[in-house]
Specification:
heterodimer, A: alpha/beta, Fumarate Reductase Iron-sulfur Protein, Chain B, domain 2, 2 domains, four-stranded parallel sheet, 24 helices, 49% helix, B: mainly alpha, Arc Repressor Mutant, subunit A, two-stranded antiparallel ribbon
Chain lengths: 480, 106
């Protein structure tokens, strides 16, 4: 496959493609008409960009904009730079400097007094803004490994998301980001799944699990008032891969859990995290929190999804200005509790292939959930082995930050995925387990591109596989 | 625009390997995409059942069908779709059926 033309700097030159934005305007979508979803309009975008930039700077952003001493430690932490070590534009500091120089030119006094001295400079036209788009969306997976390794506390991930948010206000975004944001605003879920399709798929999975376990006692309840757990999922599970819903249902049933999915507010993913749009972030997260309140559940449980976990568990409460009244946890934490409390029994000899664990950036580095998946894996597999580096220092699957939905940056993404491929290969594992749907697809791309003899699995699948269902001595025959 | 070269043919695709011009899809294109992207040598009647359903659904609704619909229409269990198309319903079956890349986390 031919590579898209790149500048010598490696930054992808992808023009702005507003076709779906034009269509959304022509169709008169409510989110566009009401100004929630912004579309590109030629005109004074530079002035608007600078106005937004000045008005949105917070204390933590100001620190990240001014505290960098250009020590270069971030470079060594970034898989883009490690894979292209001769290319300075791949370093986090260079990417951040493209934002920093605008800040200096237009906000900070140093750049206004002596712009040449501090290398200050602002965007001149929409072309410059588009280039900025290609840097913050195309050359960074927002994995925050550089942030974690910065001795000065500079949060380059935060700067990238902030800049993405400014560009989103102007409609200067990759087409994929616009499309998914549109669907999430319009339908409440990122894949535009209808209510009928949602309910039918759940019924289908219920029937599959009933067949597998040979009992009609199993249910996948929707909108059950007063259940203990509100289970929220990724629309990908409904649309393309509902096996994980069946796994969860099987385990919840065996553990005797009182659970329900909501009829509305079931999408725990949140493109506001990727696009930098706090309003979208607030809308989607609030849907989930309100579902829990409406159904009076005691806990919110999030299926295996990295950015959904970070958005719903951590960031969403701030975006939505919502008081956290209920504990919110990943389903992996729920599984760990079942195992520790003896609510489910497992036979680890059913998972004998060597398995390694890939920490999702949004779960480990940004979500502080590190040991729990390991505790579960050690109980359900016979050969669990770490990859290196791991935990909070793990490398991104390369599909993070919404990059999976931006086809134009894929060649660069797969080129720098060499780092991830080497890391995976060195484990010698046959299975790589991750608790993030986005990482599943990101890792699958890496495995296919670098021809690795591995398969991606998730924690629910391995637990479901090892689950000993009372009344059946052997592994169930009909497996999902 | 990227492209795949296979059996002397040149197929324009996007960076994800999805057909660049979905309207130009033919059964021959499907066969070549299946070989290049899914490593499948030849498509069986079962493959065609899935592919044709997806194609017709897309032409009618301008949308990729849910995997539920694929199974309903063909009568296959869920795992059969994964057996037929190693990359799964979205990146495998929809790609062979010449659809543009579905939006979202896929």
């Amino acid at each position: 496959m031919k590579r898209r033309k790149t500048t010598p700097s490696g930054v992808v030159e992808a023009p702005l493609d507003p076709r779906t934005q034009v269509r959304a305007k022509e169709e008169g979508l409510p989110s566009v008409n009401e100004g929630r979803l912004r579309t590109y309009e030629p005109g004074d975008n530079v002035r608007r960009f600078l106005g937004l930039l000045s008005s949105r700077i917070t204390r933590s952003l100001a620190v990240s904009l001014t505290a960098c001493v250009h020590c270069g430690l971030c470079a060594e932490s970034c898989h883009y730079f490690l894979a292209r070590p001769d290319d300075p534009t791949m370093t986090p500091v260079w990417k951040a400097d493209q934002i920093r120089k605008i800040f200096k030119r237009h906000v900070d006094w140093t750049g206004r007094v002596a712009p040449w001295w501090v290398k200050a400079g602002g965007p001149r036209d929409d072309e410059d803004l588009n280039r900025l788009k290609n840097i913050v969306f195309g050359s960074c997976s927002a994995c925050r490994r550089c942030t974690y390794n910065c001795p000065m506390g500079v949060d380059t991930g935060l700067l990238v998301r902030f800049t993405r948010g400014l560009l989103t206000e102007l409609g200067i975004v990759p087409e994929g980001v616009f499309n998914v944001s549109r669907d999430q605003w319009e339908t409440g879920n990122q894949m535009a799944v209808t209510e009928t399709d949602y309910l039918e798929t759940l019924e289908w999975m219920r029937d599959e699990v009933r067949t597998e376990l040979g009992t009609d006692a199993i249910d996948i309840p929707v909108d059950r008032q007063g259940a203990d757990i509100l289970y929220t999922i990724n629309p990908r599970e409904i649309k393309f891969d509902p096996r994980s819903i069946a796994h969860a249902a099987k385990i919840f049933h065996t553990a005797g859990e009182s659970w329900t999915l909501p009829n509305w507010g079931w999408d725990q993913t949140n493109f506001g995290l990727f696009s930098g749009d706090d309003k979208l972030g607030a809308y989607v997260a609030r849907n989930v929190y309100e579902a829990a309140e409406r159904l009076r559940t005691k806990r919110i449980v999030i299926s295996e999804c990295g950015h959904g976990y970070r958005s719903t568990r951590w960031e969403g409460y701030t975006w939505a200005g919502y008081d956290q009244k209920l504990p919110t946890e990943s389903v992996v934490v729920t599984l760990k509790r079942y195992l520790e409390d003896g609510r489910i029994a497992v036979d680890r000899t059913r998972n004998t292939e060597p398995v390694t664990f890939h920490d999702s950036c949004n779960i480990a580095r940004s979500g502080d959930l590190v040991e729990e998946p390991r505790d579960v894996l050690r109980r359900v597999c016979t050969d669990f082995r770490e990859m290196f580096p791991n935990r909070r220092e793990n490398f991104c699957c390369t599909g993070g930050g919404g990059l999976l939905s931006m086809a134009e940056y894929r060649p660069l993404r797969l080129e720098v995925a060499k780092i991830k491929a080497d890391q995976l290969r060195a484990t010698g594992a046959e299975l790589v387990c991750t608790m993030c749907h986005n990482c599943v697809d990101g890792l699958n791309d890496v495995i296919k591109h670098y021809k690795l003899p591995m398969r991606v699995v998730q924690v629910l699948e391995l637990v479901s596989n090892a689950l000993v269902v009372p009344g059946t001595n052997e592994r169930t025959k009909h497996r999902l | 625009m990227a492209h795949i070269e296979i059996e002397g043919r040149r197929i324009e695709v996007n960076e994800e390997g999805f057909l660049a011009h979905p309207e130009e899809w033919t059964e021959e294109t499907a066969r070549l995409l299946a070989k290049a992207e899914e490593g499948l040598d030849g498509l069986t009647a079962e493959h065609w059942a899935v592919v044709k359903f997806i194609r017709d659904y897309y032409l009618e609704k301008n949308l990729a069908p849910m995997v539920r619909k694929m199974c309903q229409a063909t009568g296959f269990p869920l795992m059969k779709i994964y057996d037929l198309f190693p990359s799964g319903p979205a990146k495998g079956a929809c790609k062979v059926a010449g659809l543009p890349k579905p939006d979202g986390c896929v």
